[in-house]
Design brief:
Blueprint (H helix, E strand, L loop, with lengths): L13 E3 L73 E5 L7 H10 L4 E7 L18 E3 L8 E5 L3 H13 L5 E8 L6 H4 L1 H11 L4 E6 L9 H16 L7 E6 L9 E4 L5 E11 L5 E11 L7 H6 L2 E6 L7 H10 L3
Parallel strand pairs: 2-3, 2-6, 3-5, 6-7, 7-8, 9-12
Antiparallel strand pairs: 1-9, 4-5, 8-12, 10-11
């Protein structure tokens, strides 16, 4: 198996908010972003699967984008609606670990005050559900408004994607300004994005023309420390709300499981070519019938220094712009020339 893929790829990832390990700067310095992905139009119609089309309103430019005014307290000021009234952005929060998971509580607390936060999340863990939806069973919503102080919250009997669909149609009765999914317990870098319920919720939002971000922490423990993740969630969401976001924007954000002082900053990356080499352990249940337990070892075939895996191994927060259009535009161009009708 090849160690790297041959697709068009940028050679170096951009770095945003970089700082030296162990030496906090007291703020986040916005460095030059060299990666063309950061300039690409992430519309679900073009992207790094083939050609990264430049220009347009893709990933918000954190360096030179026109920022909205502040409210004087460090929070971005919302757009003004009819008659000059301040319009507060609506932020939908969901996850795949379930509404009672520590990760979603930390996400809610990280963005509290940036807009009207509404939580719609599964009533039980839904990890690895990918983009599954419920078809053969009824869906149920139950209010959980006492779970997060001052936050409207609902638990849903369905999948993370069901949560997004129901939130828009039956709870918000409108499209939110931003959808946030997570914070997932465990990584969603490289190939994990395909299986992830966390990222599928974000992708579903983007399909519905809602800018979205999926957040994951590389720590599966229920007692994981989300301190650094909360800090960078706030930074990322504030920058998004200050920018003109493409309606199909999707960001896959992963946090290394290290203390804040060791995080070097935010790096814009591409998805690494890595996968799990899987094995099924065969066992017998008490009645003597065979069953199988999935195990596996994560293997990184990609040695590029511009990947999410590399960034996380070197204590950066990785940010990968993704898309729901799975067209391989490089191969499409080749086939158009060789497969002539």
């Amino acid at each position: 198996m090849p160690k790297t893929r041959k697709n068009n790829r940028p050679e170096e990832a951009g770095r945003i908010g970089e700082k030296k390990a162990g030496k906090p700067t007291g703020g986040v310095r916005l460095a030059t972003v060299k990666n063309p992905i950061a300039r690409a139009t992430v519309t679900g119609k073009t992207g790094v699967t083939g050609k990264a089309m430049e220009g347009g309103n893709g990933v918000p430019d954190l360096r030179r984008g026109k920022a909205k005014a502040s409210d004087g307290k460090g929070n971005p000021a919302a757009d003004k609606g009819p008659a000059g009234k301040r319009r507060v952005p609506v932020i939908l929060v969901t996850n795949d670990d379930g509404i009672s998971a520590p990760g979603i509580r930390n996400l809610v607390e990280a963005v509290n005050g940036l807009g009207k936060v509404v939580v719609v999340a599964p009533d039980k863990p839904q990890s690895g559900m990918g983009h599954a939806i419920t078809i053969g069973n009824p869906l149920r919503l139950h209010p959980m408004h006492d779970l997060f102080e001052g936050i409207e919250a609902w638990q849903c009997s369905g999948t993370p994607v069901d949560c997004v669909k129901l939130a828009v149609d039956k709870i918000l009765h409108r499209k939110p300004d931003l959808c946030l999914s997570g914070i997932n317990h465990g990584s969603n870098h490289s190939i994990n994005v395909i299986y992830s319920g966390t990222m599928s919720a974000a992708v579903e939002a983007a399909i519905e023309s809602i800018p979205s971000v999926g957040f994951s922490l590389l720590d599966y423990s229920v007692e994981a420390d989300f301190t650094a993740a909360r800090k960078y969630v706030r930074i990322i969401v504030e920058n998004l709300l200050k920018s003109s976001m493409d309606k199909h924007l999707i960001l896959n954000v992963n946090f290394p499981a290290v203390p804040d002082l060791l995080i070097k900053g935010i790096k814009i990356c591409r998805q690494a070519y890595a996968k799990y080499e899987e094995d099924f352990i065969e066992r017998n249940d008490p009645s003597g019938k065979k069953y199988y337990w999935l195990t596996g070892k994560f293997v990184n075939f990609d040695r590029g220094r511009d990947t999410d895996v590399w960034a996380l191994e070197h204590n950066y927060v990785s940010v990968v712009p993704v898309q729901f259009d799975m067209t391989n535009y490089v191969l499409k161009s080749k086939l158009e020339k060789t497969w002539k009708s």
